[in-house]
Structures are given as structure tokens and as C-alpha cells.
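Practice problem: predict the structure.
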Amino acid sequence: MDFIPYKINEALENVFIQIPVELFDNELYGNLNSDSILLYGLLLSRLSLSLKNKWADKDGNIFLIYSRKEAQKMLKLSDKPITKAFRKLKEAKLIYEVRSGFKKNNIIYVGKINHISTEKTMNRIMSDSKNGENPIQESEIVRRNYNEKKYNNYSNNSSCSKNNSCNFEQRVYAPGELDKLYCNFENLKEGE
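Answer:
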């Protein structure tokens, strides 16, 4: 089989399954394995089909009908890993299943993620900082600066001693310059 790269006009032709990154970071979901995380992403993608079919209960909760066999085929897993993945998602309260009857597929409700509060996330980021300012600026070591010599030599540690300690230069950023690096920067500007 030959390697065939994408052409410029073909780069956006695939459909992707989105997996929330918070499933990897949030301690509430620490017991989920990769199979259950991938299954959750697959179930989320199937919600669009449920919308198209207008599968919703009387309370307006959207559900899907998806068999274990379909999940096995799609994720290329056997019966036991799929059963375990569904069980782990139930334990994490990310899915809820309603039995439909003998030899019928269960109705599956996909639950929302319980997000980590922004306050916890901000405290974690700010604890990385020495003085409460932007941790990226303070922790980024760019290059070694030798005061006596006007060049940078990364391999020469002989001039770094207890008496003649080496210091490091850091990039200096203007206030607000790093804000545009955050993915929701535009949304934050509009919401202020």
C-alpha cells in the first residue's frame, strides 16, 4: 500500500469525532480508559443523527439508539471491552440507558460533562507563578546569559559555579500580549 498525502482541496473532506479534552483532565473522570473516552466521543457524534430523526422524549431530552454490535464494529473492539466501556460511562454518569425490551437495543441518553470550575483551573495556573502574574512569562527560560562573555554557549557549564552563577534571560512581554494565545480570547473580549 502506498502513502497518499492530502491535496490542498481535500484537507477538509473528513468527518471527525470530537472528544472533550476535559475527560482526560477532570478528576471526576479519572477512571475512564481510552476505550470509554472514545466511545463517549462516538456517542456524542451520533447525537446529530438523533436530531435528524427527531428522537427526543416528552421532556425534550435527546436520545439515541445504538447497539453494542455497532459500537464493536465501529471501534474495532470485542464484546468485553465494549461492555466495560459502556459500564464505565454509566458509572461516571455520562450515559443513562433505558431498556427497550427483549432483543431490542437500549435507548441511550448521553449526559453532559461536569466541568471543573474556572476558579480551580485559575488557582492551578496561578500557583505555577511566583508572584501571581502570568506563569508563561515567568517560567519560560529562553537562553543562558553569560555576563562576562557576549555569546551563548549551552554546553559550557564550567563558568557556572557557586561563585560565578549563570543567570538566564527571559522574554519580556507587554501587558496583554499573551492574552491572544488563549483559544477563547475573542469570546472573553466580547463578554467583558
